[in-house]
Design brief:
With 238 residues, the chain is α/β, with parallel strands linked by helices. It starts with a strand and ends with a helix. Strands 3-2-1-4-5-6-7 form a 7-stranded parallel β-sheet, sandwiched between helices. It has one domain (3-234): Rossmann fold, CATH 3.40.50. Strand 1 (3-7), helix 1 and strand 2 (27-32) form a beta-alpha-beta unit. It is built from 8 helices and 7 strands, in the order E-H-E-H-E-H-E-H-E-H-E-H-E-H-H. It binds NADP nicotinamide-adenine-dinucleotide phosphate. NADP nicotinamide-adenine-dinucleotide phosphate binds next to helix 1.
Amino acid sequence: MKQAIIVGASSGLGWELAIQLADKGYQLGLMARREELLNDLSAELPGNHFVQVTDVTQAELAQQQLQDLITRMGDVELIVLSSGVGLFEKKLDWTVEREMIDVNVRGFAALAIVSYEHFVQRGGGHLAGISSVASHLFGGLTLTYHATKAFVSNYLAGMRSRAARTKLPITITTIEPGFVKTPMVQGNPVWMAPVEKGVEQMVKGLIKKKNHLYITKRWRFVTWVLYLMPQWLLRKFV
Ligand SMILES: NC(=O)c1ccc[n+]([C@@H]2O[C@H](COP(=O)([O-])OP(=O)(O)OC[C@H]3O[C@@H](n4cnc5c(N)ncnc54)[C@H](OP(=O)(O)O)[C@@H]3O)[C@@H](O)[C@H]2O)c1
């Protein structure tokens, strides 16, 4: 049986990913802070699954909890890091910035390392991290979120390069969503995709072991346009 762990499975993309992977026969390890939601999700899925509570801002403890879950499950071949926080910064506030840095950067890197080392020891495997199209762009009202996602995309690109040197079959997938309808997204921004559609594209890309996924695919085009625009013009919009 194929086994996968989703960190950030209690909501949004992680929750829907659990549903779609379980449908494809995966046995799952579900991680996040909200235990009740993880238990509800586990009960909803076909088959037996594992729940492990974690708060990724407690980076070293979260590393131990991920390692323990890997050991409990047996042979995990896919780990998806979906945990993330996106907060508006009308007024610059260190408490708000620190939460995003703690979850999206410190927590992310801490668990990416454990995942990578697991796949090296296993002789192969697949790590996917959810970054954002925001990684390609600065944001005046969401500057920390954009900067943390630039870290995620850049870190995963480096990890892909490192993995290639091992000559082991290790895949590193960078997932960059635009807008997908989840509790994180406020309002109704342009080109918002239903979560089911976004995750369907994600699952197809994961199965094909793609290095890079834009969710939905049209955001690849947006990213190209963003790189062509001069910064003075971008500053008028973001
Ligand atoms: N939706 C979009 O349009 C969009 C676009 C670009 C990128 N993304 C990225 O996609 C990922 C998933 O976001 P989403 O849209 O699914 O948002 P969401 O519904 O708010 O889910 C966020 C997930 O992160 C987990 N999380 C937050 N803080 C955590 C912590 N300290 N420790 C452990 N887990 C924590 C939450 O679980 P608990 O609260 O239970 O801990 C939850 O499962 C994020 O990385 C986000 O930045 C989303």
